[in-house]
Amino acid sequence: HFIKSIGDSWLSAGIQEEVEAKRGDAMNKQTSFPVKTGHYLVGNEGIYKVGEFLGEGGFGKVAKCTKLGCQEFFAIKIVEHVESGKKEFEALEIIKDLDPVKNNLVKLYECFLFENVICLVYEILGESLLDRMCRQDFVPTHLCKLRPIAQQMFQALSALKSISVAHTDIKLDNIMYVDEESSKIKLIDFGLAIKTKEMLTGSNIQVIPFRAPEVILGLPMDESVDMWALGIVFATMCRGDFPFPCGTEYETIRGLVQIFEQLENVNHVPNLDEMTEIHREQFELFDDDDHRAFNDLLKRESKASYAATAKNVMRKTQLKVMEVDPPAPEHFGQRSDSENNISKLSEDLPNNQAKGKMSSTIYRQTTFFPVKTGQYLVGNEGIYKVGEFLGEEGFGQVAKCTKLGCQEFFAIKIVDDVESGKKEFEALELIKDLDPVKNNFVKLYECFLFENVICLVYEILGESLLDRMRRQDFVPTHLCKLRPVAQQMFQALGALKSISVVHMEIRVDHIMYVDEESSKIKLIDFGLAIKTKEMLTGSNIQVIPFRAPEVILGLPMDESVDMWALGIVFATMCRGDFPFPCGTEYETIRGLVQIFGSPEQELLTAGMYTEQFFTLDEGSSNPSWSDQHHQLTQKDTLPKMLTMLRAASLTDSEKHIPPLVKAICHKLVKKTTLFSKWRLFC
After folding, report:
1. Which residues does residue 376 pair with via DSSP β-bridges, in sequence order?
2. Does 630 lie in the same domain as 499?
3. A single Gene Ontology molecular function, please (predicted)?
4. Last residue of a domain, one of 77, 92, 123
């Protein structure tokens, strides 16, 4: 009933999203909070002066305070909702007989009512597990650093179990270090603690990433929900990310079913023995007893057996900090850079996540955006009335607008960064001589400056490939439906090649259907289009899921990077998911090597970034690049979709690929193209 697998990254940004959400909640807190910095709070055991606010917890704010007459600091949780404050105090009364020092529980000094707010005075602590992971850039935690945390948390949960109490809110930010350098931790926030016998079946407890299956399914509950949540905490620390998709309860259940039932279509979940080898290689240590014990722990299928053996696994003598500070390789746990998150594509496609979370656009609040719904935009060829905002694209928002004097709709991209708007218009100037209808490009009607925003007026289109995939529940696209998309995209790329232009942003949300029922598509968003001769080796282009190998390795580039990205689009449609792991560049290269083998030696030698993924063996007379250090070997099974594509391309190509498409392909792909064996499915 615990984790059977900690696989390659599923959620490029799961924890980061939680951090940002918390920051956003803090920023949105009303400024009318009744207690300010410098105020004095009169308690039962002294008077406290409010210092800086440390953040929020539950229904109140937490302030760092000093007590008049002493130098000690206290953390006072100030709850303006009196009933919530009383409820938290009553929950703390349940555990008042437990020794907070021995059992690693936060210490409460007093609770009092002051000017209609409840004040709970706690000992001051350091940072939470989540804060430390964030500060360390979410690098996976080594087992020897996890062990002392596990020892202390098992003690805390055992103490709660001894008095039949469930915490019900175990999570990364409710476990805090005593200070910055210590490995001593404390469990905090007992506001939702409850007697086990009072737990009601069907209650909505725990936040989703740490929510136990019995809570999601509405089954009888007991204190084991805390053990489940603690297991997720440990797995998250080990991985540097949540072990399951967790945007919705559906995602979580789907991920659990895939792992526990060992479904045939799970491609990104290696077995635990492989996970252990990867974890050992990462830290370059061989603590076999630890890893074997931890592996056995994760293999337990029931919470009962897990709870019975957990302490034995973590009972080894705690290592000193100086003995356990191994550096991880630079590529391991690497997070994608900000440029790779323009459209959050690694979160938008399933990647074994549930469909409910998928979105092709990022909707941002329009509170401070300079253009509002109902406003008029005065252009060169007419006046446009702003209707609904359809979403974001690039550096601006896209609005559905009407033109005064006609019934036609237009999609106007409103860019509040003038320089970005000018750059996109200049890129569109490169293709102005190409027929947008014949070559399947979005049509630009005009571009104008209005009140310090750039407005680009496009034809209105329907949904993107990503939107349709989402609407159809990410069911793999049949080849007969893929063929017309391929034909039109080959025509578009052929037209761009004819004028030596590279789009550089081919992906599933940049290809749109003309309308809901049509198979006619258009290529959009030319904001990053560039002349082929201006492409610089080593440039950081394309989002990771669609990034070509020559971009990743830092080799000379040409228009074939668009063909690679288009191949990924087709494979994604065929499969209903990305064909390779794509949380980081390292994952992508590893997947490619596992499937197709290593690139040619001369290409690796020429790559600017090859050393980030391969090791140069200089011990022989003929130095060569090796992938042994990173275990980039063909151990994994070839994904079914790629097997199908390879078979189709080799055995039934005449049936599936029309002559026109083949002819265009021959023009687009050079006979001596780089990574020929890696481009087979393209």
Report:
1. 385
2. yes
3. ATP binding
4. 123
Tokens of 111: 């609770």
The range of the structural domain enclosing residue 605 comes to 465-668
User: Rounded to whole angstroms, how far apart are CA atoms 316 and 331?
Assistant: 30
Residues 447 and 507 in one domain: no
d(CA 650, CA 636): 22
Question: Residues with Cβ < 8 Å from 187, sequence gap 6 or more?
Answer: 104, 105, 106, 153, 156, 167, 170, 174, 175
Does residue 663 lie in a domain region? Answer: yes
As a whole number of angstroms, the distance between CA 606 and CA 567 comes to: 24
| Rounded-to-integer distance, Cα 338 and Cα 420, Å | 17
Has this prediction a pTM greater than 0.90? no
DSSP result, 254-288:
HHHHHHHTT-TT--S---HHHHHHHHHHHHT---H
**Which amino acid makes up residue 422?**
K
Tell me: do 144 and 264 sit in the same domain. yes
Task: Please provide the average confidence, as pLDDT, over all residues in the chain.
Answer: 75
CB 500 within 8 A of CB 532: yes
Give the count of domains, the chain. Answer: 4
Instruction: Examine the domain organization and report whether 469 and 447 are in the same domain.
Output: no
pLDDT digits (tens, 9 = 90+) for 276-328: 555 455 544 444 555 555 555 544 433 333 333 333 333 333 333 323 233 33
Q: In terms of DSSP bridges, do strands 511-513 and 108-114 run parallel, antiparallel, or are they unpaired?
A: unpaired
Q: Which residue has the tokens 């084991």?
A: 224
Same domain, 543 and 625: yes
Q: For residue 71, what are the β-bridge partners?
A: none
What pLDDT does residue 440 have?
Answer: 95
- β-partners of residue 53 are 63
- Which of 581, 634, 9 lies closest to 332 in space, CA to CA? 9
Q: Is 77 annotated as a binding residue?
A: yes
The amino acid present at 551, given as its one-letter code, is V
Helix (H, G, I), strand (E, B) or coil at 448: strand
Shared-domain flag, residues 30 and 176: no
Please write the tens of the pLDDT for every residue from 351-363.
333 333 333 332 3
Q: Report the sign of the C-alpha dihedral through residues 468, 471, 473, 478, in that order.
A: negative
CATH number of the domain to which 535 belongs: 1.10.510.10
In angstroms, the CA 326 to CA 342 distance is 33
Please provide the DSSP assignment of 173-229 as one string: GGEEESSSS---EEE---TT-EEGGGPPTT---S-GGG--HHHHHT----THHHHHH
Residue type present at position 55: G
Rg (CA), the chain: 28
HSE-up of 650 (CA within 13 Å, CB side)? Answer: 9
Instruction: Say which residue the tokens 């989002």 belong to.
Output: 543
Same domain (yes/no): 502, 397: no
Specify whether the CB–CB gap between 427 and 528 falls below 8 A: yes
